[in-house]
Amino acid sequence: QVQLVESGGGLVQSGDSLRLSCAASVRTFSSYSMGWFRQTPGKEREFVAAINWSDGSTFYADSVKGRFTFSRDNAKNTVYLQMNSLKPEDTAVYYCAASFSRAVEIFRGTGGIKYWGKGTLVTVSS
């Protein structure tokens, strides 16, 4: 059983930065493409970013492109989401996800998510 544990959420002001981390308890971490999704009450979970298992290529939702950076450290079984210039509309619970699909498939919504984390809350005040 793979466990994904997110951390780094919190309360910040508009324009601030946060770095989310997601640690995976799996030996074959480098075989998984990873993703970040977010959800607010009453809304569907939405795609934020994905990183490919093989070459580290990344994909972003238009709403975060240029502000968020997704990276991975396979030696530490950890991925990071650096979030800069945060806006109130970024407020959400952020979920880490692992998939055997390519990152582009996660981006397109056609990639199956194998494992989900429990989420970490990010609140951005105006």
Give me the strand/helix succession: EEEEEEEEEHEE
> Structural class, please?
mainly beta
Largest sheet: 7 strands, mixed
Rg is 13 Å
Note the total helix count: 1
Shape: globular
| Average predicted confidence as pLDDT | 95
Strand content: over 45%
Percent of residues in helical segments? Answer: under 10%
What is the terminal separation in angstroms? Answer: 40 Å
User: Unreliable stretches, pLDDT < 50, 5 or more residues?
Assistant: none
| Count of beta strands | 11
Would you write up a description of this structure?
With 126 residues, the chain is mainly β. 5% of the residues lie in helices and 47% in strands. A hairpin with a 4-residue loop joins strand 7 (68-73) and strand 8 (78-83). It is globular and about 40 Å long. The termini are far apart.
Topology:
Layout: E1 4-7, E2 10-13, E3 18-24, E4 33-39, E5 46-51, E6 58-60, E7 68-73, E8 78-83, E9 92-99, H1 103-108, E10 115-116, E11 120-125
Parallel strand pairs: 2-11
Antiparallel strand pairs: 1-3, 3-8, 4-5, 4-9, 5-6, 7-8, 9-10, 9-11
Keyphrases for this structure?
globular, seven-stranded mixed sheet, mainly beta, 126 residues, four-stranded antiparallel sheet, single chain
Please provide a brief summary of the model.
By secondary structure, this protein is mainly β.
